[in-house]
Amino acid sequence: MPNLSRETFLNIIISLGLLVFPFIAxxxxxxxxxxxxxxxxxLSLAAVGLNLALGTGGLVSxxxxxxxxxxxxxxxxxxxxxxxxxxxxxxxxxxxxTNQMLIIWLVxxxxxxxxxxFIGLLSLRTSGVYFIMITLAFAQMIYYxxxxxxxxxxxDGLSIYVRNQFPGVNTLDPSSFFYICLALMFAGLGLxxxxxxxxxxxxxxxxRQNEERLxxxxxxxxxxxxxxxxxxxxxxGLAGALMADLNRFVSPxxxxxxxxxxxxxxxxxxxxxxxxxxxVGALIFIIFEFIFGGMTEFWQFYLGLVLLGVVLFARGGAIxxxxxxxxxx
Amino acid sequence: xxxTLLFEQLLNGxxxxxxxxxxxxxxxxxxxVMGLINLAHGSLYMIGAFACAAVAAATGSFWLGLVAxxxxxxxxxxxxxxxxxxxLYDRDHLDQVLATFALILILSEGCxxxxxxxxxxxxxxxxxxxxxxxxxGFQYSAYRLAIILVGGLVALGLYLLITKTRLGIRIRAGEAxxxxxxxxxxxxxxxxxxxxxxxxxLAGFAGAMMGAIQSVQVGMGEPVLILAFVVxxxxxxxxxxxxxxxxxxxxxxxxxxxxxxPGFFNLFMDTAAANSVGAALSSMxxxxxxxxxxxxxxxxxxxxNA
Amino acid sequence: MTDQTVxxxxxxxxxxxxxxxxxxxxxxxxxxxxxxxxxxxxxxxxTLIKQIxxxxxxxxxxxxxxxxDLAGMDVADRxxxxxxxxxxxxxxxxxxxxxxxxxxxxxxxxxxxxxxFKNVRGDNNLTEPAMAALKRVNLEERAHIMTAxxxxxxxxxLEIAMALALDPKAFLLDEPMAGMGPEGSKKLIGFLDExxxxxxxxxxxxxxDAVFSLADRISVLVYGRVIATGSVEDIRNNPAVREAYLxxxx
Lengths: 329, 306, 250
What we know:
Strand order of the largest sheet of chain B: 1-2
Largest interface: A-B, 42 and 40 residues
Radius of gyration of chain B: 20 Å
CATH class of chain B: Mainly Alpha
Mean pLDDT of chain A: 91
Order of helices and strands of chain B: HHHHHEEHHHHHHHH
Strand content of chain B: under 5%
Structural class of chain A: mainly alpha
Low-confidence stretches of chain A: none
Number of helices of chain A: 13
Number of strands of chain A: 2
Low-confidence stretches of chain B: none
Oligomer: heterotrimer
CATH architecture of chain B: Orthogonal Bundle
Distance between the termini of chain A: 21 Å
């Protein structure tokens, strides 16, 4: 492969593998594997969102569960109102629920974007450890809010009976829903690759490496980071809506700090700042969960050991091991 | 709302704040001296509570349990520092977050392997079990009052340790300049282990004391850990004084918010609605407090750089 | 203040505790000139530059640039307003190539940092002006080298290229010769000599040969105070300056 780096080659193999996966699962007569693959696609998308802030922008957000959960609740609230034919509110104007994925996605993206704007405005005034703790704290605030607010199920969460609809697609068919999620995952990857190579991406990478220089060049680092944080939150929010749709269930667990940790783990397992890092991370995570989760109730104990090993001894993540050091230019 | 109830809640807030301080002090010390963010600090709280509950159940003595909690958490702290944390001092915060997140998974699941998923119960010692009568016939839980007193003593002890003793001087020197204390011939590795173990023991002690109020279960340290983060953000990172102020503030605001907000909304809403809105908003009160402080003092109330 | 004055610094103060880092500093920069700022280490030269750039807030005093008071403007605002600055210790984006560092300045100049889709590689609107700036400091052959791999002197050149790409209305150069070999310094002196006609230069420099050959005016800063301002000849003959500073050096 003269013109293809090992990393690109690996990315192509993974993409093709995911594209044909439903046929393999059907041939193996294991339709449940399609659900697993759908989770891989959705978690990848969530991690693609985080990777934009964390990998490209160096913003170590430990609160991305907030956006994941808000996306999930956007789905839950809209769909539950649609299934009971009650409006969400009637004043000052009437807003009805919906079971149309396209509208749900839009609402999820907008709502998580607004949340990211507020959280970002406050937390980006600080940096380093402060930023980590503050993003964690604000996510926790939303978590406790949803737990103590009884209207949408409180601690028990919200169930919906039927998966939402997408024009021209039978979303009840696992493969069809998988391809919807996969398409969005590729769109997220494409978007994040484009952003990274754009003028904005250049400014964002500079903000990560040398804020002083970026400012002296006349570009305000705060605005660049805030914009990245909002886009990042939106992508993760969309993933949250998909995950809730897959499970037909949303609960405060999606907002919990364990979830924030998990999304971050996906990015790290794959390799920080790599385009396909989130996908590889999600693949490893789901396979790990599937294999060890089947063997022992305490599979997260072993996940912890692996994660510790990766952080202490294999800092490039899985792609780093397979494809060597990241290239920069 | 009656004055008595308000006063009782104020004491509850103080008691909560004191417990938070025991957590936050260790976190902020470890950050100030070693520059490390430790998510697994909540696990040490959990270890303390489990050690206390297990030993108290086996021996029938709460006091032995309390000693065990300090020993177990301190010892766990030493091991964790020597095998994991030590490799993280020169790493960036992302690595520290991930490695200590991994530690949480390992310690929580490990604890579940040993003790199972069901909560353990820990009773306060007999003579502290009932209420005490304070001035004017006002009654308050003796155990909670004891926590306030003990917590206050520990805070004082910590202050004296850091300002008056040789170890404290070294710790403060370590905050100021690693190379300098190395040049003075202090063994940094040992100093760091000691600091980490002190923080761990304080967390374990807090967990044990709270274990008699809450149930002792896996994951019990995490909500406290996050509140301790809020405390540190409010108080200013690396400052013991800031941790103390922040802890009391968070403890009192959180407790009073839960009691007063539903009543406040009841003034212009029906009771059910007021209770749900009040509960939802009071769960956010300390985060709103944090946000307000961030807007006006992003470095926290007690800034180290001042 | 005449039309010729580009940058006017009025009674600027900055205290760090009891230490007066800058003490009532007043000086100006006129069109077409190089105004050198000299003084012993710790005299407050870099503090002054930081105050002018907005990196440090001033306790009191004003910075007026092109007739506009810069109060309330942050570093980025001031850079956009036309203050082209180089750092005493090179401050660059290390994982970018030299070219991409300069491209960052070009996109800032163009005001297009919020474009999300077009790939910057091969974007001639960025690469051509960036390459031109690199060429002016003789770094075009090193354009695609990672900044972390550039030599110390090359990084100094790159800093100047980034300032050039901003097309500033005044340059603030903090020890641009530091770490350069004699050959590089000589080239740079020739370059700065020309550059002053594009935009005036406030030059901090320890290399006295460079200062004396380039400066139209010199100000001497000692313990945060300007003890003298004048032509090269004035400064050389000023007894207070000789006492405080040149006495040992010259």
